[in-house]
Amino acid sequence: MDFRLAPEEKMILETVRDFIRTELTPLEGAQQEAHLAGRGHEFPDEPTTRRLQHKAKDLGLWGIATPKEYGGADLSTVLNAMIAMEMGRCLVSFQFPGRADNILFLANDRQKERYLIPTLEGERRSCFALTEPTAGSDATNIRMTATLDPSGDWVLNGEKIFITNGNEADFAIVFAVNDREKGTRGGITAFLVDRAMGWQSRFVPTMGTWGPARLTFHNVRVPAENVLGEVGYGFRLAMSWIGAGRVTIPARAIGQAERLLQMGIDYAQQRVAFGNPIAEYQAIQWMLADSAVEIESCKWMVLHAAWKQDQGLDIRHEASMAKLAAAQMVNRVCDRILQLHGGMGYTQELPIERLYREVRVYRIFEGTDEIQKRAIARNLLRGYARVGSWD
Tens digit of pLDDT for each residue in 13-27? Predict the structure, then answer.
């Protein structure tokens, strides 16, 4: 097991760091202003995003997770996780160009031409629509219906909620029930549904800057050729999509926690109370020490899961543990750093209060803490994972 990066991997990581330092970090002031004005979910705007993506492409940061056959860099899961950590340290939200939902690569040739390739080239935007008002972590209980019409079209009816990019996307990857008796074993189908086919979206306000959407489908007709994968076997695709996020999300949480910890270190050395920098007080030192230990522990959990995926091994158990641990960790670190800053941490002059609200969602989306614990315990009890194993 070798955790050393190759020279070219180190160069890529340095390029990412330079891009963050020169292109993204200078925008943090404007990001905070947009947040205070209630427009945080709209920043950066489309022109700024396009400019940043062109710059990233010029630097060779295009398609970092995209297979080489589509012109991508096809970087390892480990390196992508490290890049996500770097991006987490920046307060400005950004995604490198040349990216598409992993399950779009499983589309047929016609669908790839119409959906995948334009998405990679930045001409189209997608969203992943699984969660419903009555089916969050219990995705097996989705109610949106897909009825086969005599004409051969499918007719979709129902609602989706908390859909990332749902307000910006021009097509959605939608999961609907085609046979309720079969359920997840042949009864849920994935569809590629253009906005022009009739679905509508509206913004869902949240406690953070995440701006998801509620999607409404009323007799939306979808051609049979827009079925993604096989009829009835869409749930497998959905779980594949969610599984990928259980490495990326904790990696980003680690980067955010590291940014917070550095803020705490800097402030503790500058702030004087009772005649001394507060860094000299044990209570403050323990906050910093506990945070550093937890961050480092989670970092290696994420990297281990990423490494196993690069070896072609099943990482569901490790990914659930990494996601659970990092989601809880970043919330604790954020709370400590806010406490360390005292009243200033509670104000909107610093970004800590915003991060305090933003990181809370990590314990909810892509599988709640409770779902992760259920999966971890089940894996242990059924023997899918073994205590003390090095596999």
Answer: 999 999 999 999 999
